[in-house]
Fold each of these.
Amino acid sequence: MLNENKRIEYVDILKGLGIILVILGHLEIPTLMKAWIYSFHMPMFFFLSGLVWNSKYNELSVRDFVTKKIRSLLWPYLTFSIIYLLYNILMSLLLKQFNLIKIIKEIIATLYSNYIFEVNYIGVLWFLGALFVVEILYFLISRFDDRRIRIALLILCVFLGHVCSILERKSFLRLPWELDIAFTAIVFFSVGASAHSIMRMLRKFNMRIIIGVAFLVSNIFFTYMNYIKLYNTQFIGRVDMLYLNYGNIMFFYISALSACIGFFLIFRNSKLYIFQEIGKKSLVIMALHIYLLALLQYFLKFIGGIFGCEIVLNWAVAFVCDLVISYVCATIIEKHFQWILSYQRWKQLIHKKRV
């Protein structure tokens, strides 16, 4: 039987670091800081998912594996999508801005699970859809015994990811369920699944730290090189996996993988309790932080209206407030509303009510 409940400390620490960077990336922070964060923060989550890949998955049938991943990844995608929809309907009614067309578009985008309209209606949940497809692709590829075939298929995915990026810029063509993102993301997942072999080559602690720092320096260098290219050719000036905006594809892969491996080597034996606790709740924090920040801004606007002034939070203050509120909400959900995250808990809740 597969044990998926056992947590790995350094993985939670890196998830904590990752979700902190996600929140910062969604705030009005300095341009170069945002470019650096976006160079690796989402690739790192795919890398970390690969780190906890269980080789015993290969003993499962395709049907059993897909069912397992539907329950672990698509269930929270569904529940949080419903929460998003209800939130958007409620806020539009309160603000007297209800638009039925937008609601229909949000439902379509949720079912299609990709950025297909003028607004990203699925928000950060794109990651869950992409990870679902990535894990299925990796599961199918890993079933080949010949290592050369597995490598060839990964190279094919890289090529298809690059083609999808080009097609998106020319025709705004997006594939369902983030398949276009998954073709690129599977590389980071695969490296994560192989990362433990890297550790076996770097047994000495000092050597591991030094090499980890060298990888981070590589990340900064190639991120800046890619930033210059993107700044000169596109208004966004940074990579963004959601928009298939990679800039120079080689610079993107090198910078992202350098950061993933660098942080992995540096934090492998670390003890950072705060980061670890944040990392344990990273899924809920990721799902809620943008909406909670919006609610905070609405609240400050309301208070400002009462006192006849405008209250604007500095990005650092906004970050602390959003992180704390998101963490508290995540704690409440995990303690009292576990059915939002777990299909098994939902089944138990329904069974309990029937009895």
Amino acid sequence: MEALYKHQIDFISYLQRLLQEGTFTSTYKFAFLHALADICIEKEIPDNGRLVISFAEIVDKLIVLYWQHAMPFNEELPTGALLQSTDNQAKIITDITELQQNGIRNLDQAKQSPYWKSIYRNTMNTLKQGPLWRLQVLSRQEDCYLFPHIKNRDYIELNPGIADCFRQFHDLVVQFARQGWIEKVSKIQQNQSVIGRAGELSDFLFGTSRNSLKSASLVLKDIQQGNCFYCQKPLKGNAEVDHFIPFTKYNNDLAHNFVLAHKACNNNKRDYLAAPVHRDKWQEQNLVLNTSQITRELANYFVCDPKRTAHVANWAYDIAEKNGNKFWLATKDVFI
């Protein structure tokens, strides 16, 4: 147990060194760190603790993370989007902007478009030329604590125990990465004249979901036979689409993570994990009985990946149980 605690302390210390001793001319390193944390909760960790992550997985995650950042922030900026690099706009931003201007809403649609080969190639080149080998350069020396630098591969293999640390401290890693990301964007001179309060910038880059969830309402109402997912009473015009695994814990819109609930139930649940009885019902509803229908009807609007959704749920509940957290059961703040 002492060895585990020491490993966790070493992990946190290394993250602090990354931010203090690393060199950041753009936001790519922050995005890469964020991507590693997310991927570690989206996959099953092998028994040997050495998680293999392909470059292709990292490219996908980088595009997802930068998607909102490519949205127009202020018309005074050259393209409307905030700059992500000290010198020029990050290539990934200009590529994603082109996708968005052509009506492409998400990663799955991007992969089916004629623009995918180009953005995939460009992002892969950026990954290899930048954060992949530079993230672990501290005070101008390589310190490969997270994964070894082995060239001529199309994947990285995290060192033993690192994936578990990313899972245990996912919230902290994401907080570190986002804080550094926001500070970098705010310090770029061309951005400073249009950036308001720090909170406004944080909300724009990493705030609540901006996707319209209305497209999910009809299919969920059909699946749930017009009843609230949580209290099972009829929905009467006050329904809201809820992220079953709260958006604050995992800020991606996965279609199989949605349920339809009364506004009162949704507001009372807030950012808590629902009780195991709700989890069992959600798994049966969204990941077993209706997974194909959800994919078929919502793939044009949201990422549809039931396997990833299940892994994220397992991670969220595992961490909550280890930490002794309570789970929300019903309105009027009923917890177990």
Amino acid sequence: MGDNTVRLWDVATRKGRPPLTGHTDSPWTVMFSPDGTLLASGSKDTSVRLWDVAKGESGAPLTGHDSDVVAVAFSPDGRTLVIGGQDGAVRLWDVATHNVRATVPLSSGILSVAVSPNGHTIAAGGGDGTTRLWDMLLYTPDEAVRRICHAVNRDLTAEERKAYLPDSPVGRACSPDS
């Protein structure tokens, strides 16, 4: 049995650094951010922790999965963390705000995730033997509304507005030129 810690070693001195503690069950997966300042660790406790590598500290865990977190991957710019869980969900987290940017539910548990070098595509390997690819381009709320308005070629209904734009002022969501 492990001690639920993440351990880093200084390769030059061949000495271990103090263990990173915080998970309440075994860590399954780890990955450094592209700039090497953060380490993401996913655990059997269903959470992910983002560790400041220099300080050996993490903030509040990223939560939301219903089962083991077994895969993590940073986007090339380090601003998005892709997390895969055995619950079949892939979540994209904003590293700076710790907010979920998107959730993609899949039909089987996730075994691996990867982000393409250009940051545009996510790959997720599932327990059902399939690998799925999808576009990772996430739009700002204003751009998303503009694209939706263009696609449906009308303004949003009252129900759509309430569901998707609950905090926006009353009025047209779509401009006439959308």
Amino acid sequence: MESLSQILSNYFININNLIASQIPKSEEGLFNKTFIVQDSGIYYILQKVNSILKENVFYNIEHITERMSKLGWEMPNIIRTRSGTLYHQTKDGTIWRLYNYILGENIKDINKIDLYMMGSLLSKFHSDLYKINFIPKSPISNFHNFSYYLKKIERLKKFILDKKLYSIAEDILTIKEIEIISTKNVQLIHGDCRFQNIIYDKNGIPFTFIDLDTFMNGSIFIDIGDLLRSISCDEEQIRPSISVDNIKKVINGYYNCMKEKMGKVDFVKSTLAGFKQITLELCMRFVIDYVEDYYFAWDKEKYSSRKENNRLIAIGQWDLYNQINSISEKYLLDMFLKEA
């Protein structure tokens, strides 16, 4: 196993003056080790990356962030190794990458965030991503492939031993009308557009996006729906709590900044469909990982196993899906039409 100094020597000629501090992590995930590295007052992020991310993902990030930077965005640009590779791979197969550090705030309390500006930022982000006109090379397999997860739930249902999760799986499979928005307004999108993947200034104004491994071609309503989902439950994704007022702020912010306007009625309906789809998709993925038990991060300090954590999140996302269904489309549309 290579030491941190050996890894850093692949990026820096003189490592003696480097100061590296690990960001505390209480959970395993795609990035189970993250360091802030300081070199003569300049800061970088060094990450140990799960092998699920292939070289094409790094190429996608480099290409897109370089183009977005030219359009005025502050982006976490990948820094190549001294030998010119997109990442450093150790002899044991571990992958490390380095990119520039973006100074800002990672706000976890949505009450401290300007939600209208958050919707507006995503709208501008989509607008500029559209200008790039780039199709990502081989992104993460079946990511946001709703039909794939439906089929997988059906195949794995007999292996779900937990009564509550089995009941949820059965209910999902009996839903008669699930509006799939995957083919609507398709373009380059973020793919994991949670409010936790946004950087804010000290006043709660969002200004850029991070965690860009999920760049993909998909519906803008996947991103919008995921943003709404993330502000509608706690950070652990276990306790849902929908605020129609918060939803209104985000969708007003997005719609008012759209370059190519679509009909207001169609926009609200598509937004709610995306909100439902992404929530149901995540519920299915956590039920699936309850059975397969290998993919998702889990908090070792709070839970005895990944299965326990997966179970609670699946139930929480199912409860959120049902809360979304309780929102009157007409009520939300009436509010939106008055202010948009």
